[in-house]
Automatic annotation (TrEMBL), chain A:
One Pfam entry name: SBP_bac_5
Any one biological process term the GO annotation gives: peptide transport
Alphabetized InterPro entries for the sequence: SBP_5, SBP_5_dom
Places the protein is found: Cell envelope
Broad class of the protein's primary localization: other
Native organism: Paenibacillus taihuensis
Name assigned to this protein: ABC-type oligopeptide transport system substrate-binding subunit
GO (cellular component) term, any one: cell envelope
Membrane-crossing segments per the record: none
From TrEMBL, chain B:
InterPro entries hit by this protein: AAA+_ATPase, ABC_transp_ATP-bind, ABC_transporter-like_ATP-bd, ABC_transporter-like_CS, Oligopep_ABC_C, P-loop_NTPase
SMART domains xrefs: AAA (SM00382)
A matching Pfam family: ABC_tran
Annotated source species: Paenibacillus taihuensis
Listed SUPFAM superfamilies: P-loop containing nucleoside triphosphate hydrolases (SSF52540)
Protein name, UniProt field: Peptide/nickel transport system ATP-binding protein/oligopeptide transport system ATP-binding protein
Superkingdom classification of source: Bacteria
From TrEMBL, chain C:
Gene Ontology biological process terms from the UniProt entry: transmembrane transport
PROSITE patterns referenced in this protein's UniProt entry, alphabetically: ABC_TM1
Membrane topology classification: Multi-pass membrane protein
Chief place of localization: membrane
Transmembrane segments: 9-27, 107-132, 144-171, 183-202, 238-263, 283-309
Listed name of the protein: Peptide/nickel transport system permease protein
Organism: Paenibacillus taihuensis
Amino acid sequence: MKRNKFLTTLAAISLGAALLAGCSGNNNADSKENGNAAASNTESGNAASANNASSGDATNKEVESNAGTLPDKPTGTFSFFINSGATWDPAIWDWGGHHNAIGIFEGLVHYSQGKVVPGTATSWKEDGAKWKFTLRQDAKFSNGDPVTAEAFVLGIQRAVDPNTVKGTSKASSFLGDTHIVNYLDIQNGLKKVDELGVKAIDPYTLEIDLQEPDKSFLDKLAISNWQMPVDPKVVKLGVSDDTWTDPAKIVSNGPYMIDKLNVKTDMWLKPNPYYYGKVSLEKIHMTWSTPEIKQLLVFQNNESDMATLAAEDVPAVKGDSTLTNELNWFDTSISYTFQVRHSENPALQNEKVRQALTMAIDKQAIADKVLGGTGTPSYDGSITTWMADWIKNVGPQYDVAKAKELMKEAGYPDGKGFPTLVMLVPGADDKVAQAVQQLWQQNLGINVKYDGEEWGAYVTKFDESADPGTVSVVQNGVGPAVANWKETIVQTDPLHMELAKIALDGKAWENYRKIWNDSKLEQGDKNKQASDLFAANFSKDITDRYAKAADAYKKDDEAGLKDFVSWRMNTAWTFPIYTVRNGILLKPNVKGYFPMRMWLSTPPDWLNDITVS
Amino acid sequence: MSAIPQPLIELSQIRKVFRTSHGALTAVDSIDLIVERGSTIGLVGESGSGKSTVARMLLRLLTPTSGSIRILGEDVTGWSDKKLKPVRSMLQWVSQHPAAALFPNLTVGQNIMEPMRIHGIGMAQERQRKARGLLAKVGIPQEGFHAFPHELSGGQQQRVVIARALSVDPGCVVLDEAVSSLDVSVQAQILNLLQDLQEEMNLSYLFISHNLAVIRLVCDEVAVMFLGRVVESGKTREVFDHPLHPYTKKLLAAVPSFTPDGGVTQLDESSLLQGDPPSPLNIPSGCAFRSRCPYARERCAQERPLLRRVGTQDVACHFAEEIAAE
Amino acid sequence: MLVYVIRRVGYMIVALLALTLITFFLMKQAPGSFLTINIMQSGLQTSGHSSYSMDVLQEWSERYHIGEPWYMEYWGYLKGILTWDFGTSFQYPNTPIMSLLVKAFPISLGIALSSIILGLLISIPVGIFAAMRRNTWADSGAMFFSMLGTSIPAYILAVFLIMVFSLYLHWLPSMGWRDLKNYVIPVLALALPMTGSMSRYMRTSLVENLNKDYATTVIAKGGSKRDVIYRHVLRNSLIPLITIIGPHLAGMLMGTVMIEFMFGIPGMGQLFNNAAGSRDYPLIMVSTFLYTLVIMVMNLLVDIIYGLLDPRIRRSGMSD
């Protein structure tokens, strides 16, 4: 059991996807504690969500809620930008997959106005690690077939079944962060998919068995694609084919269904005629965006009801009173960070140097001047300031004098004798990375080289050691799985792995890579050799600190948890720079847009809350 | 036709001043020229002396700055292109580079028919018959009718240009260095052709050349130009045998002649023109030729010699009589 | 002429083969493979089943000859191209490459060709206008504006056009891909910068021909200026203009990429960019091949038209 979990996390080499949706692989630490009111013991469906629970967030303008006051007949068209989407199979992991979760499909629960609310499940009962969901009997698919417990079982089984993704070049939407009984053995081909801990007790009662109690289960369900039901009369186990990009063949159960679809161009949604409740909008138009599209112009031309501001557009919007009134600032949970890359040169193994590097970065100036407010200073990769305001005070602060002092203590007075620091960045013109480069050079007197690489080259070099004689940091985008700072500590077990792996010395890292890239080794042997290597080389301090943190979580020892976070920030293995904040323009006649902050693009969290008058 | 026979073309006191970025350039200054039907007038001079400018004014490709151009007694000086159109069939132009003058995208036949098309002469069939006739007349085999100009030799091209010029039955053909770019043997053929055609069609030629031998061969009368002015004119024979202007003398002295035994006479170095002519932008006072003239005296710097009758020629030199007496 | 075309087609085949080989090596030279990159960006590595990558690798190795000697792998692609059976790409294993191309390629080609045609339709009259009034203020004015066009990059011009035609006049959509209206701004944005060099070329070529004796001959023979331009000079001046269309087209197919991104147009730009970024070898090979093929065919067509316009080349068998 323990071994299995360890192996799983091995697969999470690192989260290299720069600033895409926060999907760090998550392993749940053993937590039988049951102290979170948000998600436990709720007979009714009024679960308050962690997403909105902690509010240290003065900048978010409240968008007027109108949930529950939908028109009798679907009216109006809402058009907005999306960033990605290639398949609408809920079993497939896709960056655009969350569009299923905001109203094309409807799961057991979903988000609405920042809270987890009942979806097809009207109520649920938590009994330790066993969850029983009662489904509504009037729910139907877009072809008129009923949505039964069987449909949910099939949907979840498809997502876990490793055969589904074979031949798609995609991963499963079931990332393994929710520990349904037997999921790992099924994924590894040791057990059959019908042994998964998901059962239909009767046509309208669904049971999900977890390996251990999970306070964040409902939150995780609400943003998941894998919990979606699929029509057993239409969809088969074990395959995903291109019917999932054909609107005529996609059968969904949300308030909306896909009407027209031109992948990477635009898509239209229309009301699902069989949806049990009212549907607010007559049409929804979703347009794929690229960084080159001038969303502001499109918005001003009334071709879109929504636009995401580019940093360079901020001054123009601030100078226009109409646009200023239409502007909403939505925080996301995704942070832009740098992290230490391995090198044979041990200069960055010195904590003082890393702290000096952190202290030399004026994050506020970057957020204001480079990003024009489209970012807020980030202090910790997984805990944002809007989740926990105190986070800004407990780590290393911007302090050039102290940074210089630390460099001197480390043996590099005024940067003398310090090796060249290479910044590995995707793209040739990353303004933030250039600002950091400048700050480091000016404040510390060290030589910093900007190494902008094409995406494929960047991804490839990500895990490689720095060039001999240099030290290096690499840009990364990270985010938590849940929006609750205490939960992030236990939900981000891989971050423990991450930190320990980043902290490995250059030689141990190269040995690890040798094992990992050895094509002659069987996967099982690879895993074993790697875990032995980690056991021998992982920093004891890091391992102990994480063990203590897990303990503090169990005891709900807030001071202990804060202490851990503070320690982690002071190790300065990573350099968080900013958390993405989206400037979203919305036409004044659009009501009910509440941002899904767990995703980079902050789409509306439930399309059926939106009305356009 | 008026009662008194008019000369075909009459240029009187024409002047052409070009404005350039370096100031006014007087290319042609107060020239009189008369072309009679059936005669051949030669214009000779160094390059830059204004020969071609005279030709272009005569063709009304350029408008004179002052002076007048009469064609059959009609003053056409200020006429627009539109008004000139009927007159233009009277005058045709044969230039130095036949390859550039022929329409590269048209066949030989089409080239010859093009002026007829412009002037709306005849139906397609008639034009073709006439073109074929002209082709024969200039000595090109009929297969050449469908050839493209680039497929012909230089001499053949020039024959086509001539045929094209003749297609509208002109009274006068301006031959601007028409044989200069051709081989000597070809030159002779073309000159013979031109003479035959002249007799046959009663043509007049304005023959422009720097080649004195050619001028002597074909021209009845000749005008020698220097820096935009005529310095001497008269019957070709007279001018060539008894030049009255020092410039004409120098020009003639520069022509090597053959000795009876097949050799070439030695040129007298001292009699050759020394140095370049003065810049037309900055013509010296008095006689423009004085800087290179062995006869130059005080008077030449102060007084510009005018064209005057001396014996059989018109000459612009203060000392023409002195030279005549030599 | 026929001999010439056959010989040119022969050269084309050799060049295309060489190009596929170069593309193949450059592609293999680029760091990373589809597998590693896809693992990084698709969340595969976090999906929790460690054997996945091995399974997939196995499957792809067989399908795409990965791990075999380079000539075998190359032959795999070449065979696909030769038999016009492109197979499937790494990114979309369920969709034949052909069906991706059939959607994307006509869009890009359509934009590129319409831009060039529009560019010519603008440049030729402007060039004639300027040449007929050469060295007047009208000439300088026309040339100034055309130079202005050249110095403004397409993407900046596009923003300007959006502001004028979408925001101010409300005539045209600012992005998207639905109907003919969506064509207008992208095509204008690509065509206008081109008119700068094209109209200058046209003007220079016209002036050069106008100075030739045959142009003077027309006037001397009583033809009008219109006769000179439209019957003789224009045709001969178009010849050099046609020769620059080939290179323009090549540039245009590249230029459409940026414009496609700006307007969200589902053309080759997006397809190729994704293919290159994710080391989707089959798609890279096929789309590079197709791009080159189109550029070469276009150049051949241009040369044939050139020959038809210029008898000097038509008759002498286009020896060079």
